[in-house]
Amino acid sequence: MLGCRALVALAAGLLASCGGIKVAPTPSLPRALIQKLPLKVGVVVAQDMLDYKHLETRGGVAWEVTLGPGHQKFAMDTLSAAFASAQQFRTLDAAKAAKDLAVIFEPRIEQYSFATARDTGSNYYAATLQYRIHVYNPAGERVDSYSLTGYGNSIVGGAMSGSDEPMIAATSNAMRDAAAKFMVQFPEQKLAQQLRKGEPLLAQVAGGNAIDALAFIEAVPIKDQTD
Q: The whole model's pTM is what?
């Protein structure tokens, strides 16, 4: 009888011969037990982010990981959980033209990486997503920019018999991890305190706050969650 790793390698080889492995993770976030800030925010998901794909050939297998739709859902679910209202826009100019926005967020994918069971030498897949979240005041002036990294993994075997399913689960868990970090840590940041007080958000100036002034704390990868 073939072991889990052998089955995964066999499935990957078969799929590679048919054009590779294509996955499109679109995770659902659990209900956030946090107090929302009573504000309306804008969320810019640019077209290049909506179309974002990670293409890589690993061990002779062509992987196509479509992250755009999942990124859009991640952004809207996360900010809708953190604020009373979140409205999506395709461009910063469109968000600037909107009324009654307290702040505008533009989350962007900076890097995606993954490891298969073959890479890890074990029976799990792992994924890492690095985000950059630009923050603008209602006039479209940048006021801050945060880095945020999510980690996820998934055990091979059981219900996840296909070679695509562990990758979907690991990537979805990475998105959930990033969302959880934002929702827990953002309320403690200076920007959140300014928003609570209704203070104006001032544009960054030369010699002022650096773009990388805040890097969210990276936690231990979350364990063995599935969709």
A: 0.80
